[in-house]
Every structure is written in structure tokens, then in C-alpha cells.
Amino acid sequence: MITFGGSQFDPGNGTQVADDPVADKNILAVFPFGEDRATLDRILKQSGCRLRFAWSLEDMQTVLRSYPIAAVISESRLPDGRTWRDVLETLLCLADPPPLVVADRLADDRLWAEVLNLGAYDLLIKPFHPAEVLRTVGMACRCGNQLPAEPPAGLDAGASKASGHS
Questions:
Q1: % of the chain with per-residue pLDDT over 70
Q2: Which one of 61, 92, 129, 131 has the minimum C-beta count within 10 Å?
Q3: Measuring CA to CA, which residue among 142, 144, 85, 93 is closest to residue 119?
Q4: In what order do the strands lie in the sheet with 2-4?
Q5: Can you tell me the distance from the alpha carbon of 139 to that of 91, in angstroms, rounded to the nearest whole number?
Q6: Residue among 90, 76, 89, 87 at smallest CA distance from 33
Q7: 53-101 residue pLDDT tens
Q8: First to last CA, the chain
Q9: Where are the domains of the chain?
Q10: CATH architecture of 21-145
Q11: Cα Rg for the chain, rounded, in angstroms?
């Protein structure tokens, strides 16, 4: 690769190489489990992003106040009984909410449809496949905030806990 005028070019064919949408961005991972954190760190480190971690919804709010976050990746179920729906509801309260990617070991079509219909960006299946994580997080960063201005009908913390959906 050669750099010219701030852009990178492939010397083999002279084409411009697209900038990595994740490079130099803060990505927030809301994962209470060390194994998932280590895996995401290993995968995303190669992209040049700064991975920030939160153990809980409260930790997530602290990180969101401290750094500009390009995208959030969250475990579907948090140990305190909260879920990705609570994460999404918190993000929707921000003036410029980052896209949310949900991760779940037991992801199925129903969860995927629910995640998309309620306004999250996408669903990652665990165990994580490096290429899929990089592609999904990169696209989330590239697309930016596409969350609805108003919370979708049925999205509130009470509904997610009462319905048992995650």
C-alpha cells in the first residue's frame, strides 16, 4: 500500500483502498463474561479500533458519557436480569445514539427479526467468527445512527422484563 493525499492505493492495480470504517473509532462492548471480552478484543484489535468494555448497563452509561462511541455490541442477556432491549432503550435516549449489534449463542430467526424490528443494527452469533464480527461492526460504523427517533412500540424496560424476551 502506498499513501497519497491521505488515501491508500494498491500499487498492484492502482486502485484506491477503502478506509477501514472501524479504525480509530471507539467501539463499546457490553459483555459481563471475560471469554467474550477476550475474543472480541483479539478480533477487533486488528482493525485499529479502541475497544471499550462495560460489565453492565450502568457501566455502559459511564462509558457513553466518557467517549464518543461509533457502535455498541451487547450480550443479549446481562447477569442483572437486563437484556439487549434495555441497552437499546438506553441508547435511544441519547441525542445521537450509536448503532447496536446484539450477540447471542442461541440466535434464531425469531430473535434476529425482533432485534431488527425494534431498531438494533444486527445480530451476531456466538461463538464469534472473526470475519463476521469485522464485517458487521464495520458496516454498523459505516452506516452510523439509523435508530428510530422514537422508541418502537413495545420497547420499554418493563415490557422486556415482563415478557421474558431477550
A1: 74
A2: 131
A3: 85
A4: 2-4, 7-9, 16-17
A5: 18
A6: 76
A7: 999 999 999 999 999 999 999 999 998 899 999 999 999 999 999 999 9
A8: 44
A9: 21-145
A10: 3-Layer(aba) Sandwich (3.40)
A11: 17
Cell readout for 112 is 434476529
Q: Would you state the pLDDT for residue 131?
A: 93
**CA dist., res. 37 & res. 68, Å (int):** 20
- What's the pLDDT band for 154 if we cut at 50, 70, 90? low
Burial letters 50-82, b for 16+ CB under 10 A, else e: bbbbbeebeebeebbeeeebbbbbbbbebeeeb
Residue with cell 432491549: 85
- The number of C-alpha atoms within 13 Å of 57 and in the hemisphere containing its C-beta is 17
